[in-house]
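Thread: quick sanity check before group meeting

JM: Hey all, I'm pulling together slides for Thursday and realized we never actually wrote out the predicted structure for the chain we discussed last week. Dropping the sequence here so it's in one place. If anyone has concerns about the input, flag it before I start.
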Amino acid sequence: MSVLDPAAIAGRLFDTERKLYFFPIRHHSPACALHLRDALRAIRPAAVLIEGPVDFEPLIDELLAPGVVPPVAMVALPGSEARAGKGRSGTTYYPICSHSPEYVAIQEARQLGAAIRFIDLPSRHPAMLSDGRDKDQPLLPMRETIFDRGAYVQTMCARTGFRDGLALWDGLFEARARSTDWRSFFASVGAYCASLRAASHTDELLADGTQAREAMMRGCIHGAIATASGPIAVVTGGFHTPALIDAQPETSQPDGTNSRSDAWLIRYDFRALDRLNGYGAGLPLPGFYERVWERLIGANGEAESSLTEEILTSFRAHLIANEPALAFPFPTLRAMVETARRLADLRELSEPGRTELFDAVQSSAIKEEIELGSHPLLAAFTTFLGGDRLGDLPPGSRLPPLIQRARGEARAHGLSLEDAVPKTRELDIYRKPRHTQASRFLHAMRLVAPAFAQRVKGPDRVHGFRADTLMETWTYAWSPVVEASLIERAADGETVQDVAAAILIRRLADLEKEGQSNNTEAAFNLLSTAFDAGIGGAADTLMAAVSAAVGADTNLLRLTNALVIGEGLDGRAKAMHSDATVRAFASLLTPLLDRLARRIAELLPDLAAVDADHVGEATQCLAALVEAMADPDPPFPTQPLRDALAQLLSAQLDPQLTGAVIAVAASIGQIDETEAGRRLSAALAGAFERPGEAIRTLSGVMALAPQLFVNDSGVIAAVDDLFGAVDDQGFLALLPQLRMAFAELSPHETDRVAAVVAAAHRAGDDDIAVLQQVPDARVLSDHLALSERLRNRWREDGLAQWLEQAP
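JM (edit): ok, ran it. Output follows.
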């Protein structure tokens, strides 16, 4: 189709001789939907062909079932190849709302007794997936970014005065929704889309799959011509229409057109439908256009107020109830309504549209400067017009049992699934059994459908963060992505916990495939996840795998980190000892921790052979061991560990490891602080000729037990003596290491050390204040160089004796 005037376009869109009618639309356009309804009722087609994946055609009857409340979406799950990592793994979505022209076409076709056919490529065809999106983003067969950018759109905006492509579309077409001439309307849409098409590059159409899709559509259209006994209506995105009119039959269709997918109908929501939140086709702010649609079809009856008044009044009420700090007074509301109307008159529109509403809110209610085009009130208005409606399906809809049971369990735990707005839930997990069960469900859902819930705060005994906290805080929202995830997991079981158990067992298998079957830390992390989710069914399998990992693992850091995780699991089990599931879990955990502790004891003496390049990892191992043994009644035998540490105390070790081992022994009570101070002072004295080694010894202590240094004046004095014998340049060379060692001290501990050093040098409070303001190495080097120049000048002036008399 060439770029022609609407009158010429109309003759080509509506071929009365062949009884072939093309209807170019924009997805989710109320104006297109209303005119399409009128057109279909006028021509009474025998067949209605719709741009939609052919493999979704079996879902049409479900879509038209009584009780279906849009928005809903037809979805296709990844095939076996995608799940095996050989293709795009995301789920394909085809969203539909009440004002989608495709949905109206399906409804009208059914009322007229017309055949309904989808004519696009299958949803999982490669040409349908070549949209360049993130692999984690929904895959969408409908893409219309060409309507919002490009040279033609920019030129049209410049000529008409509309600020962008969306405002241009609204002004040219949505404003004509109430006209009664559907032929003229679609002729105008056709002319506009033909111009967009003419301004597009052929290479881009080939690369993004457009040409392959249109080849499929042409084949379906000519197939319908050969079999239909009456008029045929073809409903496609307007960008495709020019490539379909007057096209010759395809000699062959693209490969893969006979493929079928695992397709389902699910609930959808306006937030996901909103193009501004990442959706790639149709119009933004579906809540606004839904209000427009309801007015157009008279769903609200005879409204006393205009749509503008209804929207702005509802927005003010929403702010008063939810964001009172942004609410505006009634006079401002009246000013907004009047401004919107005047702007519509100025722009020669029949009534205010989306752009006029935003302009009215901005000019009437915002007085201060708007930085970077953003303002809280405008953001709130955007969210309000986007809407939060969640569609629904009737009871008995064809859904996997997993979805039905997940919904039922969520509601039983007091979780609201009525819309897709994120909500917050606080759980008292240790004192209220019902809250414990809800927590397990949420943890399990994090495995099965990660988009459903996120834990904001709560106890984490595994990593020591807020371990004594009694409450968990979660945010959750039931969204289309959640339902799609549940459908995708339905083959693994009928309950959330069964599926979660299957996922964990699969992750164990993945560890083996990756050569990580001996990774004790990773296996214990899976065990911790199972505990949080209350998965009893997988406990035996997981425990056996973890036990095997313990016996095969030779990495001491992974083993000691696993001991920390295991100690945390035992602590949580003790806090929930009244729960039968937890008791059974704990009974399996006890022998496992016994084996783990003995395995660590076997490997600890190997630290004696650690060199300077690996001492950091060795220190981390000892730190994890201290953390695990901090419990006064640890759930594992400690004597084998103490015996192994005793061997290290008497061994010749790397200086940093020497300090770390002394710190561990003191921290677990194997030696008292006096003995620890004596050993540390001796180690420092032994390194008197090698001050760098002394600092490394000090670093080992600081990393695990800085109190040994802070609380022992003898150790501080030994360090002071050591550095008192180092010249200025030597001290500067050691300063970076010294800073790192002292970085472990708190401000209070730093003050304590400064006071001891000051007292040893008979310094006053002013001197201590100076010591607390230690300059960086560069400044200190400059000061020392200045001091040296002053000394040299004094010597040249015969004042050397003054330097000798200086204190």
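AS: nice. Confidence is low (pLDDT under 50) at residues 80-88, 131-136. The two ends are 99 Å apart (CA to CA).
JM: adding both to the slides.
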